[in-house]
Specification:
The complex is a heterodimer of chains A (about 90) and B (about 400). By secondary structure, chain A is α+β, with helices and mostly antiparallel strands. Chain A has one domain: Roll (Ubiquitin-like (UB roll)). Chain A is about 20% helix and about 25% strand. In chain B, about 40% of the residues lie in helices and about 15% in strands. In chain B, the strands form three sheets. In chain B, strands 4-5-13-10-11-12 form a six-stranded mixed sheet, sandwiched between helices. In chain B, strands 8-7-6-9 form a four-stranded parallel sheet. Classes of the chains: A alpha+beta (about 90), B alpha/beta (about 400).
Protein backbone atom coordinates (compact mmCIF):
# COMPACT_ATOMS: atom_id res chain seq x y z
CA UNK A 1 0.00 0.00 0.00
CA UNK A 2 2.71 2.44 -0.88
CA UNK A 3 1.80 4.21 -4.09
CA UNK A 4 0.11 7.59 -3.65
CA UNK A 5 -2.76 8.30 -6.02
CA UNK A 6 -4.14 11.83 -6.43
CA UNK A 7 -7.89 11.76 -6.96
CA UNK A 8 -9.60 14.51 -9.01
CA UNK A 9 -12.76 16.23 -7.77
CA UNK A 10 -15.22 14.24 -9.91
CA UNK A 11 -13.97 10.94 -8.39
CA UNK A 12 -13.77 12.00 -4.75
CA UNK A 13 -17.28 10.85 -4.01
CA UNK A 14 -15.87 7.32 -4.35
CA UNK A 15 -13.05 8.04 -1.87
CA UNK A 16 -15.15 9.72 0.83
CA UNK A 17 -13.79 13.06 -0.28
CA UNK A 18 -10.14 12.08 0.05
CA UNK A 19 -7.74 13.84 -2.34
CA UNK A 20 -4.99 11.24 -1.96
CA UNK A 21 -5.30 7.51 -1.44
CA UNK A 22 -2.82 4.63 -1.29
CA UNK A 23 -2.73 1.66 -3.66
CA UNK A 24 -0.67 -1.42 -4.49
CA UNK A 25 2.41 -1.26 -6.66
CA UNK A 26 2.62 -3.39 -9.81
CA UNK A 27 1.39 -1.80 -13.00
CA UNK A 28 -1.32 0.71 -13.86
CA UNK A 29 -3.92 -1.94 -14.74
CA UNK A 30 -3.39 -3.63 -11.35
CA UNK A 31 -3.42 -0.30 -9.56
CA UNK A 32 -6.79 0.57 -11.09
CA UNK A 33 -8.13 -2.88 -10.12
CA UNK A 34 -6.91 -2.29 -6.58
CA UNK A 35 -8.50 1.17 -6.45
CA UNK A 36 -11.77 -0.36 -7.66
CA UNK A 37 -11.70 -3.01 -4.92
CA UNK A 38 -11.10 -0.33 -2.28
CA UNK A 39 -13.49 2.19 -3.83
CA UNK A 40 -16.05 0.31 -5.93
CA UNK A 41 -17.14 2.11 -9.09
CA UNK A 42 -13.79 3.78 -9.77
CA UNK A 43 -12.78 1.43 -12.59
CA UNK A 44 -15.70 2.15 -14.87
CA UNK A 45 -14.99 5.86 -14.55
CA UNK A 46 -11.43 5.34 -15.77
CA UNK A 47 -11.79 2.54 -18.31
CA UNK A 48 -14.28 2.09 -21.12
CA UNK A 49 -16.28 -1.06 -21.95
CA UNK A 50 -13.28 -2.54 -23.78
CA UNK A 51 -11.03 -1.98 -20.78
CA UNK A 52 -9.06 0.83 -22.45
CA UNK A 53 -8.39 4.15 -20.73
CA UNK A 54 -11.19 6.61 -21.35
CA UNK A 55 -10.35 9.28 -23.88
CA UNK A 56 -10.90 12.19 -21.49
CA UNK A 57 -8.93 10.71 -18.59
CA UNK A 58 -5.25 11.50 -18.26
CA UNK A 59 -3.07 9.51 -15.87
CA UNK A 60 0.38 10.74 -14.92
CA UNK A 61 3.15 8.73 -13.24
CA UNK A 62 5.46 11.13 -11.38
CA UNK A 63 4.28 13.89 -13.73
CA UNK A 64 4.72 11.88 -16.97
CA UNK A 65 1.66 11.06 -19.10
CA UNK A 66 1.35 7.24 -19.12
CA UNK A 67 0.52 7.43 -22.83
CA UNK A 68 4.23 8.24 -23.29
CA UNK A 69 5.12 5.27 -21.07
CA UNK A 70 3.46 1.87 -21.47
CA UNK A 71 -0.16 2.87 -20.87
CA UNK A 72 -1.96 0.37 -18.64
CA UNK A 73 1.18 -1.80 -18.62
CA UNK A 74 3.29 1.00 -17.12
CA UNK A 75 5.21 -0.36 -14.12
CA UNK A 76 4.49 1.42 -10.83
CA UNK A 77 6.61 0.95 -7.73
CA UNK A 78 6.62 1.94 -4.09
CA UNK A 79 7.14 5.67 -3.62
CA UNK A 80 5.68 6.64 -7.00
CA UNK A 81 2.94 9.22 -7.29
CA UNK A 82 0.07 8.68 -9.71
CA UNK A 83 -2.22 11.60 -10.69
CA UNK A 84 -5.59 11.15 -12.33
CA UNK A 85 -6.54 14.34 -14.16
CA UNK A 86 -9.44 15.15 -16.48
CA UNK A 87 -8.38 16.46 -19.90
CA UNK A 88 -8.56 20.25 -20.17
CA UNK A 89 -8.38 22.70 -23.03
CA UNK A 90 -6.32 25.78 -23.11
CA UNK A 91 -4.20 28.17 -25.07
CA UNK B 1 -30.20 37.20 -18.63
CA UNK B 2 -28.20 34.99 -20.96
CA UNK B 3 -30.25 32.60 -23.09
CA UNK B 4 -28.89 29.44 -21.48
CA UNK B 5 -30.54 26.63 -19.56
CA UNK B 6 -27.89 24.19 -18.33
CA UNK B 7 -24.59 22.45 -18.99
CA UNK B 8 -24.52 19.15 -20.86
CA UNK B 9 -21.88 16.45 -21.31
CA UNK B 10 -20.80 16.19 -24.94
CA UNK B 11 -20.29 12.45 -24.54
CA UNK B 12 -23.09 11.03 -22.39
CA UNK B 13 -25.55 13.99 -22.49
CA UNK B 14 -25.99 14.14 -18.71
CA UNK B 15 -27.16 17.62 -17.71
CA UNK B 16 -25.95 19.85 -14.88
CA UNK B 17 -27.19 23.19 -13.57
CA UNK B 18 -25.25 26.28 -14.69
CA UNK B 19 -22.18 26.49 -12.42
CA UNK B 20 -18.37 26.52 -12.55
CA UNK B 21 -17.69 22.93 -13.62
CA UNK B 22 -16.24 21.63 -16.86
CA UNK B 23 -16.10 17.84 -16.60
CA UNK B 24 -18.89 15.27 -16.47
CA UNK B 25 -18.50 13.39 -13.21
CA UNK B 26 -19.69 10.17 -14.84
CA UNK B 27 -17.56 9.84 -17.97
CA UNK B 28 -15.12 12.77 -17.66
CA UNK B 29 -16.45 14.13 -20.97
CA UNK B 30 -16.36 17.92 -21.46
CA UNK B 31 -19.43 19.95 -20.54
CA UNK B 32 -20.99 22.42 -22.95
CA UNK B 33 -23.45 25.24 -22.49
CA UNK B 34 -27.04 24.46 -23.54
CA UNK B 35 -28.76 27.41 -25.17
CA UNK B 36 -32.44 28.25 -25.32
CA UNK B 37 -32.58 28.58 -29.09
CA UNK B 38 -36.31 29.31 -29.05
CA UNK B 39 -35.64 32.38 -26.92
CA UNK B 40 -32.74 33.42 -29.16
CA UNK B 41 -34.82 32.94 -32.31
CA UNK B 42 -37.47 35.30 -30.96
CA UNK B 43 -35.06 38.21 -30.63
CA UNK B 44 -32.19 37.59 -33.04
CA UNK B 45 -32.11 39.59 -36.25
CA UNK B 46 -29.53 41.20 -38.50
CA UNK B 47 -30.85 44.65 -37.57
CA UNK B 48 -30.57 44.00 -33.83
CA UNK B 49 -26.97 42.84 -34.24
CA UNK B 50 -26.09 45.79 -36.47
CA UNK B 51 -27.39 48.20 -33.85
CA UNK B 52 -25.24 46.60 -31.13
CA UNK B 53 -21.87 47.70 -29.75
CA UNK B 54 -18.84 47.56 -32.04
CA UNK B 55 -17.40 44.62 -30.13
CA UNK B 56 -18.14 40.92 -29.77
CA UNK B 57 -20.97 41.86 -27.41
CA UNK B 58 -23.15 42.72 -30.43
CA UNK B 59 -23.72 38.92 -30.36
CA UNK B 60 -24.68 38.86 -26.66
CA UNK B 61 -27.92 37.00 -27.47
CA UNK B 62 -25.74 34.03 -28.48
CA UNK B 63 -23.31 34.16 -25.54
CA UNK B 64 -23.52 32.45 -22.14
CA UNK B 65 -22.82 35.56 -20.03
CA UNK B 66 -24.45 38.97 -19.81
CA UNK B 67 -22.78 42.04 -21.29
CA UNK B 68 -21.07 43.90 -18.45
CA UNK B 69 -19.64 47.25 -19.62
CA UNK B 70 -17.85 47.58 -16.27
CA UNK B 71 -15.38 44.84 -17.25
CA UNK B 72 -15.54 45.02 -21.06
CA UNK B 73 -12.23 45.94 -22.72
CA UNK B 74 -13.81 45.99 -26.18
CA UNK B 75 -12.75 42.64 -27.55
CA UNK B 76 -13.75 41.65 -31.05
CA UNK B 77 -15.27 43.30 -34.10
CA UNK B 78 -11.77 43.26 -35.51
CA UNK B 79 -11.11 44.02 -39.21
CA UNK B 80 -11.88 41.57 -41.99
CA UNK B 81 -9.37 42.65 -44.61
CA UNK B 82 -9.71 41.87 -48.32
CA UNK B 83 -6.33 40.72 -49.64
CA UNK B 84 -5.29 41.60 -53.19
CA UNK B 85 -1.53 41.09 -53.30
CA UNK B 86 -1.44 37.75 -51.51
CA UNK B 87 -4.52 36.61 -53.44
CA UNK B 88 -2.82 37.42 -56.73
CA UNK B 89 0.33 35.55 -55.73
CA UNK B 90 -1.73 32.47 -54.94
CA UNK B 91 -4.10 32.78 -57.88
CA UNK B 92 -7.15 33.33 -55.67
CA UNK B 93 -9.98 35.75 -56.47
CA UNK B 94 -11.52 36.36 -53.05
CA UNK B 95 -9.19 36.11 -50.07
CA UNK B 96 -9.78 37.70 -46.67
CA UNK B 97 -7.78 37.96 -43.47
CA UNK B 98 -9.67 38.04 -40.18
CA UNK B 99 -7.19 40.20 -38.31
CA UNK B 100 -7.73 39.29 -34.66
CA UNK B 101 -4.19 40.39 -33.79
CA UNK B 102 -5.59 43.86 -33.02
CA UNK B 103 -7.68 42.90 -30.01
CA UNK B 104 -7.06 44.85 -26.77
CA UNK B 105 -4.42 42.40 -25.50
CA UNK B 106 -3.41 41.49 -29.07
CA UNK B 107 -4.93 38.05 -29.55
CA UNK B 108 -8.30 36.31 -30.00
CA UNK B 109 -8.07 35.23 -26.37
CA UNK B 110 -9.76 38.48 -25.39
CA UNK B 111 -12.96 36.99 -26.82
CA UNK B 112 -12.95 33.90 -24.64
CA UNK B 113 -11.77 35.74 -21.55
CA UNK B 114 -14.41 38.44 -22.03
CA UNK B 115 -17.04 35.74 -21.62
CA UNK B 116 -15.16 33.84 -18.91
CA UNK B 117 -14.57 36.93 -16.78
CA UNK B 118 -18.14 38.18 -17.12
CA UNK B 119 -19.39 34.74 -16.09
CA UNK B 120 -16.85 34.45 -13.25
CA UNK B 121 -18.16 37.68 -11.74
CA UNK B 122 -21.77 36.51 -12.17
CA UNK B 123 -20.84 33.33 -10.31
CA UNK B 124 -19.21 35.29 -7.48
CA UNK B 125 -15.49 34.62 -8.02
CA UNK B 126 -12.92 37.22 -6.92
CA UNK B 127 -9.88 35.76 -8.71
CA UNK B 128 -9.22 34.85 -12.34
CA UNK B 129 -6.55 32.29 -13.25
CA UNK B 130 -5.35 30.32 -16.26
CA UNK B 131 -2.82 27.92 -17.67
CA UNK B 132 -1.40 29.61 -20.71
CA UNK B 133 0.95 29.48 -23.66
CA UNK B 134 1.05 33.29 -23.36
CA UNK B 135 -1.83 34.93 -25.16
CA UNK B 136 -4.36 33.70 -22.64
CA UNK B 137 -2.23 35.02 -19.78
CA UNK B 138 -2.28 38.49 -21.38
CA UNK B 139 -6.06 38.41 -21.81
CA UNK B 140 -6.74 37.13 -18.29
CA UNK B 141 -4.47 39.69 -16.65
CA UNK B 142 -5.98 42.53 -18.69
CA UNK B 143 -9.57 41.59 -17.93
CA UNK B 144 -8.82 41.07 -14.23
CA UNK B 145 -7.24 44.53 -14.05
CA UNK B 146 -10.28 46.06 -15.72
CA UNK B 147 -12.65 44.17 -13.41
CA UNK B 148 -10.61 45.10 -10.34
CA UNK B 149 -10.05 41.52 -9.22
CA UNK B 150 -6.92 39.41 -8.63
CA UNK B 151 -5.35 37.17 -11.23
CA UNK B 152 -2.83 34.32 -11.34
CA UNK B 153 -1.35 33.25 -14.67
CA UNK B 154 0.60 30.00 -15.00
CA UNK B 155 2.99 29.76 -17.95
CA UNK B 156 5.83 27.54 -19.18
CA UNK B 157 9.14 29.16 -18.16
CA UNK B 158 10.47 29.19 -21.77
CA UNK B 159 7.75 31.53 -23.03
CA UNK B 160 8.51 34.43 -25.40
CA UNK B 161 9.49 37.58 -23.49
CA UNK B 162 6.86 39.64 -25.32
CA UNK B 163 4.07 37.48 -23.99
CA UNK B 164 5.36 37.44 -20.43
CA UNK B 165 5.61 41.23 -20.47
CA UNK B 166 2.24 41.49 -22.22
CA UNK B 167 0.71 39.74 -19.22
CA UNK B 168 2.90 41.08 -16.38
CA UNK B 169 2.15 44.72 -17.19
CA UNK B 170 -1.44 44.30 -15.96
CA UNK B 171 -0.24 43.26 -12.50
CA UNK B 172 -1.15 39.57 -12.18
CA UNK B 173 0.87 37.06 -10.17
CA UNK B 174 2.90 35.34 -12.91
CA UNK B 175 3.90 31.77 -12.11
CA UNK B 176 6.56 30.41 -14.51
CA UNK B 177 6.72 26.64 -14.45
CA UNK B 178 9.69 24.50 -15.27
CA UNK B 179 7.89 22.38 -17.88
CA UNK B 180 5.87 22.56 -21.09
CA UNK B 181 2.28 23.74 -21.53
CA UNK B 182 0.87 20.28 -20.88
CA UNK B 183 2.72 20.22 -17.54
CA UNK B 184 1.31 23.66 -16.71
CA UNK B 185 -2.17 22.52 -17.61
CA UNK B 186 -1.94 19.39 -15.48
CA UNK B 187 -0.73 21.39 -12.49
CA UNK B 188 -3.54 23.94 -12.91
CA UNK B 189 -6.22 21.30 -13.13
CA UNK B 190 -4.93 19.93 -9.83
CA UNK B 191 -4.76 23.41 -8.27
CA UNK B 192 -8.30 24.12 -9.48
CA UNK B 193 -9.50 21.41 -7.11
CA UNK B 194 -8.13 23.30 -4.11
CA UNK B 195 -8.17 27.00 -4.96
CA UNK B 196 -11.62 28.44 -5.44
CA UNK B 197 -10.63 30.63 -8.35
CA UNK B 198 -12.15 30.96 -11.79
CA UNK B 199 -9.57 29.11 -13.91
CA UNK B 200 -10.84 30.36 -17.24
CA UNK B 201 -9.76 27.33 -19.26
CA UNK B 202 -10.66 24.80 -16.56
CA UNK B 203 -13.69 25.23 -14.31
CA UNK B 204 -15.35 28.02 -16.34
CA UNK B 205 -14.25 26.54 -19.65
CA UNK B 206 -17.74 25.73 -21.00
CA UNK B 207 -18.53 29.47 -20.99
CA UNK B 208 -15.03 30.56 -22.00
CA UNK B 209 -14.92 28.34 -25.08
CA UNK B 210 -18.09 29.85 -26.52
CA UNK B 211 -16.43 33.25 -26.79
CA UNK B 212 -14.74 31.87 -29.90
CA UNK B 213 -18.12 31.47 -31.62
CA UNK B 214 -17.98 35.22 -32.22
CA UNK B 215 -15.14 34.60 -34.71
CA UNK B 216 -17.70 32.78 -36.82
CA UNK B 217 -20.51 35.32 -36.34
CA UNK B 218 -18.29 38.28 -37.14
CA UNK B 219 -16.89 36.88 -40.34
CA UNK B 220 -20.40 36.04 -41.54
CA UNK B 221 -21.65 39.55 -40.79
CA UNK B 222 -18.58 41.26 -42.25
CA UNK B 223 -18.86 39.22 -45.46
CA UNK B 224 -22.34 40.68 -45.91
CA UNK B 225 -24.26 37.95 -44.08
CA UNK B 226 -22.78 34.89 -45.72
CA UNK B 227 -20.29 32.17 -44.76
CA UNK B 228 -17.05 31.66 -46.71
CA UNK B 229 -16.35 28.50 -48.72
CA UNK B 230 -13.05 27.96 -46.92
CA UNK B 231 -11.77 28.88 -43.46
CA UNK B 232 -8.09 28.32 -42.65
CA UNK B 233 -7.53 28.24 -38.90
CA UNK B 234 -4.47 27.58 -36.70
CA UNK B 235 -5.14 25.10 -33.92
CA UNK B 236 -3.71 24.23 -30.52
CA UNK B 237 -6.38 22.57 -28.37
CA UNK B 238 -8.79 22.65 -31.31
CA UNK B 239 -11.49 24.46 -29.33
CA UNK B 240 -11.53 27.69 -31.35
CA UNK B 241 -11.58 25.70 -34.59
CA UNK B 242 -14.75 23.86 -33.58
CA UNK B 243 -16.41 27.01 -32.20
CA UNK B 244 -15.91 29.03 -35.39
CA UNK B 245 -17.85 26.38 -37.26
CA UNK B 246 -20.45 26.25 -34.48
CA UNK B 247 -20.90 30.02 -34.76
CA UNK B 248 -21.52 29.82 -38.49
CA UNK B 249 -23.91 26.90 -38.05
CA UNK B 250 -25.91 28.71 -35.35
CA UNK B 251 -26.30 31.73 -37.62
CA UNK B 252 -27.67 29.49 -40.36
CA UNK B 253 -30.00 27.71 -37.91
CA UNK B 254 -31.34 31.08 -36.75
CA UNK B 255 -31.92 32.16 -40.35
CA UNK B 256 -29.32 34.95 -40.26
CA UNK B 257 -27.34 33.44 -43.14
CA UNK B 258 -28.46 31.09 -45.90
CA UNK B 259 -26.22 28.14 -45.18
CA UNK B 260 -22.74 27.03 -44.23
CA UNK B 261 -20.75 25.79 -47.22
CA UNK B 262 -17.60 26.40 -45.18
CA UNK B 263 -14.86 23.77 -45.35
CA UNK B 264 -12.80 24.03 -42.17
CA UNK B 265 -9.04 23.67 -42.68
CA UNK B 266 -6.95 23.14 -39.55
CA UNK B 267 -3.30 24.22 -39.54
CA UNK B 268 -0.48 23.08 -37.26
CA UNK B 269 3.33 23.23 -37.36
CA UNK B 270 5.46 20.09 -37.66
CA UNK B 271 6.87 20.35 -34.13
CA UNK B 272 3.42 20.01 -32.57
CA UNK B 273 0.78 18.70 -34.96
CA UNK B 274 -1.18 15.98 -33.16
CA UNK B 275 -4.56 16.93 -34.69
CA UNK B 276 -3.44 17.54 -38.28
CA UNK B 277 -1.36 14.35 -38.15
CA UNK B 278 -4.38 12.33 -37.01
CA UNK B 279 -6.29 13.76 -39.97
CA UNK B 280 -3.50 12.85 -42.40
CA UNK B 281 -3.41 9.33 -41.02
CA UNK B 282 -7.19 8.99 -41.12
CA UNK B 283 -7.57 8.53 -37.34
CA UNK B 284 -10.06 10.04 -34.91
CA UNK B 285 -7.80 9.25 -31.98
CA UNK B 286 -5.32 12.02 -31.29
CA UNK B 287 -1.95 10.69 -30.16
CA UNK B 288 -0.35 13.12 -27.68
CA UNK B 289 3.07 14.46 -28.66
CA UNK B 290 5.91 16.29 -26.88
CA UNK B 291 5.84 19.77 -28.42
CA UNK B 292 8.97 21.21 -29.98
CA UNK B 293 7.77 24.03 -32.20
CA UNK B 294 8.61 27.66 -32.83
CA UNK B 295 4.83 28.27 -32.80
CA UNK B 296 4.57 28.20 -29.02
CA UNK B 297 0.96 29.36 -28.89
CA UNK B 298 0.05 26.16 -30.77
CA UNK B 299 2.29 23.92 -28.65
CA UNK B 300 -0.33 21.83 -26.90
CA UNK B 301 0.77 18.22 -27.20
CA UNK B 302 -2.38 16.77 -25.66
CA UNK B 303 -5.24 18.75 -27.24
CA UNK B 304 -8.46 18.29 -25.30
CA UNK B 305 -10.68 19.20 -28.24
CA UNK B 306 -8.67 17.31 -30.83
CA UNK B 307 -11.35 14.69 -31.32
CA UNK B 308 -14.05 17.31 -31.84
CA UNK B 309 -11.82 19.27 -34.21
CA UNK B 310 -11.46 16.11 -36.32
CA UNK B 311 -15.25 15.67 -36.28
CA UNK B 312 -15.61 19.28 -37.44
CA UNK B 313 -13.16 18.64 -40.29
CA UNK B 314 -15.20 15.60 -41.28
CA UNK B 315 -18.60 17.31 -41.02
CA UNK B 316 -17.43 20.33 -43.02
CA UNK B 317 -15.47 18.31 -45.63
CA UNK B 318 -12.35 20.23 -44.58
CA UNK B 319 -8.77 19.16 -44.01
CA UNK B 320 -5.76 19.25 -41.73
CA UNK B 321 -2.42 20.65 -42.87
CA UNK B 322 1.01 20.24 -41.28
CA UNK B 323 3.50 22.95 -42.27
CA UNK B 324 7.24 22.66 -41.72
CA UNK B 325 8.89 24.65 -38.96
CA UNK B 326 10.72 26.90 -41.44
CA UNK B 327 7.41 27.78 -43.07
CA UNK B 328 6.27 29.50 -39.86
CA UNK B 329 8.58 32.52 -40.25
CA UNK B 330 8.12 32.39 -44.04
CA UNK B 331 4.35 32.71 -43.58
CA UNK B 332 4.75 35.61 -41.15
CA UNK B 333 6.94 37.47 -43.64
CA UNK B 334 4.69 36.69 -46.60
CA UNK B 335 1.60 38.13 -44.88
CA UNK B 336 3.46 41.18 -43.58
CA UNK B 337 5.10 41.93 -46.93
CA UNK B 338 2.02 41.42 -49.09
CA UNK B 339 -0.77 42.75 -46.87
CA UNK B 340 0.83 44.83 -44.12
CA UNK B 341 -0.32 42.58 -41.29
CA UNK B 342 2.21 41.37 -38.71
CA UNK B 343 0.94 38.06 -37.35
CA UNK B 344 2.45 35.97 -34.59
CA UNK B 345 3.85 32.52 -35.30
CA UNK B 346 0.41 30.90 -35.29
CA UNK B 347 -0.54 33.26 -38.13
CA UNK B 348 2.57 32.18 -40.02
CA UNK B 349 1.33 28.61 -39.69
CA UNK B 350 -2.09 29.57 -41.06
CA UNK B 351 -0.66 31.52 -44.00
CA UNK B 352 1.71 28.71 -44.95
CA UNK B 353 -1.18 26.25 -44.77
CA UNK B 354 -3.15 28.58 -47.09
CA UNK B 355 -0.22 28.58 -49.53
CA UNK B 356 -0.19 24.79 -49.55
CA UNK B 357 -3.97 24.53 -49.96
CA UNK B 358 -4.02 27.04 -52.83
CA UNK B 359 -1.01 25.57 -54.66
CA UNK B 360 -2.38 22.04 -54.43
CA UNK B 361 -5.73 23.14 -55.85
CA UNK B 362 -7.56 22.20 -52.65
CA UNK B 363 -8.78 25.81 -52.55
CA UNK B 364 -9.98 26.81 -56.00
CA UNK B 365 -9.55 30.34 -57.42
CA UNK B 366 -13.24 31.30 -57.27
CA UNK B 367 -13.91 30.10 -53.74
CA UNK B 368 -14.16 32.82 -51.04
CA UNK B 369 -11.57 32.06 -48.38
CA UNK B 370 -10.94 33.49 -44.89
CA UNK B 371 -7.69 32.99 -42.99
CA UNK B 372 -7.81 33.59 -39.23
CA UNK B 373 -4.90 35.54 -37.76
CA UNK B 374 -5.31 35.12 -34.03
CA UNK B 375 -2.30 36.83 -32.47
CA UNK B 376 0.13 39.71 -32.90
CA UNK B 377 3.65 39.40 -34.31
CA UNK B 378 5.19 41.82 -31.84
CA UNK B 379 4.71 39.16 -29.17
CA UNK B 380 6.80 36.58 -31.06
CA UNK B 381 9.56 38.53 -32.85
CA UNK B 382 12.39 35.99 -32.57
CA UNK B 383 11.68 33.79 -35.62
CA UNK B 384 11.69 36.82 -37.94
CA UNK B 385 14.41 38.87 -36.21
CA UNK B 386 16.59 38.40 -39.32
CA UNK B 387 14.55 40.97 -41.25
CA UNK B 388 16.20 43.74 -39.22
CA UNK B 389 19.18 44.88 -41.31
CA UNK B 390 19.09 48.67 -41.64
CA UNK B 391 21.34 50.72 -43.91
CA UNK B 392 23.76 52.34 -41.46
CA UNK B 393 24.81 55.84 -42.57
CA UNK B 394 26.09 59.20 -41.38
CA UNK B 395 23.59 62.09 -41.46
CA UNK B 396 24.73 63.31 -44.87
CA UNK B 397 23.28 63.02 -48.36
CA UNK B 398 26.60 61.64 -49.60
CA UNK B 399 26.53 58.85 -47.03
CA UNK B 400 22.97 57.96 -48.01
CA UNK B 401 23.78 57.91 -51.70
CA UNK B 402 26.83 55.73 -51.23
CA UNK B 403 24.79 53.30 -49.08
CA UNK B 404 22.12 53.17 -51.79
CA UNK B 405 24.71 52.49 -54.44
CA UNK B 406 26.17 49.67 -52.35
CA UNK B 407 22.67 48.26 -51.86
CA UNK B 408 21.95 48.15 -55.60
CA UNK B 409 25.36 46.62 -56.31
Amino acid sequence: MSVTVRIPGPLRRFTNGMEKVQAQEGNLAKLIADLDSQYPGMKERLLDDQGAMRYFVNVYLNGEDVRFLQGLDTAIKTGDEVSIVPAVAGG
Amino acid sequence: MANITSLRCRECSREYPVQAINVCEYCFGPLEVVYDYEAIRKVASRQRIERGPFSMWRYADFLPADYNPRIDINAGFTPLVRCYNLAKQLGLKELWIKNDSVNPSYSFKDRVVAVASAKALELGFDTLACASTGNLACAVAAHAARAGIKSFVFIPSDLEAGKVLGAAIYGPTVVAIDGNYDDVNRLCSELAETYKWAFVNINVRPFYADGSKTLGYEVAEQLGWRAPVHAVVPAASGAMFTKIHRGLTEFADMGLIDGVPTQMHLAQARGCAPIATAFEEGRFVVKPVKPNSVAKSLAIGNPADGYYALKTIEASRGSGTVVDEDEVAAGMKLLAQTEGIFAETAGGVAISALVRLARSGRIKPDEPTVVYITGNGLKTPDPVAGVVKPLRIKPTVASFESAMAARVA
